[in-house]
Amino acid sequence: MAPNSSIDPEILERFSLQDRVAIVTGSGKGIGKAIALAFAQNGAKVTIAEMDPEAGQAAAEEIKTNGGDALFVQSDVLDSDQVDHLMSETVKAFGRIDILVNNVGATRSTPRKPLLGIDEERWDFIVDLNLKTAFLCCKAAAKYMIEQKSGNIINITSGAGMRAYPGQMPYGAAKAGMINLTHSLAVHLAPDNIRVNAIAPGTIGTPGMVYLGDTDKRAKKRGVPLGKAGRPDDIAMAAIYLASEASAYVTGFVLPVVGGPSLGGKMLEEAEEAWAKTKSL
Known about the structure:
47% of the residues lie in helices and 14% in strands. It has nine helices and seven strands.
């Protein structure tokens, strides 16, 4: 193909979400909102599942203003009855469920002594918010997906679920559990033509990260090889790939969107320092 020729329409079609029905949890702000907006811009009909009514309604209205199709359902996805309501309202409005993105999750800072200093209430809150919510939504959505013999589930996990993360033991354990849930469901649901994958974001510059200061500086200090924090749109683009037919033969996969291997930047600095000392001898 010549450098100036147009992109093959068949390739673009593989990435399209035209007329797909997607539910994105926690999509009133941050990464969830970025995913919901990107899905809508790519042709999907999107259900905004959000506890905050103002944020949820605003996200849905933004999609509609830009010509998309959206539904807001106020949902606490820790409550199985509300999760069932979320699914039924989506089907009532759009006729089916093609894509589920389990984005709800958060953490709390933990004491310097991460085992002895964590109380049961803190552990339960973090694990339930990050793992139980995904389980409940997967179970509820799978009923519809199994019946229609197609579906796509994307779990938003974290780099903290792939390695030890100081001060975030409950969060890391929950996100690691989400990774295993992804692997297990990918196997169990494959016979029904349902794919299950996960995205593991690294340091992402979201409104919820403002209290940490400059996220680019934070990422660089942590040794992110690209030397900067990611943006919510970076996760949204990864979600489009996994939600579309471009990834039709991908299931049970965890896609790290982390700016490079963990501590890769620090390792490179140490290697360069060692090399410089060797040259000076």
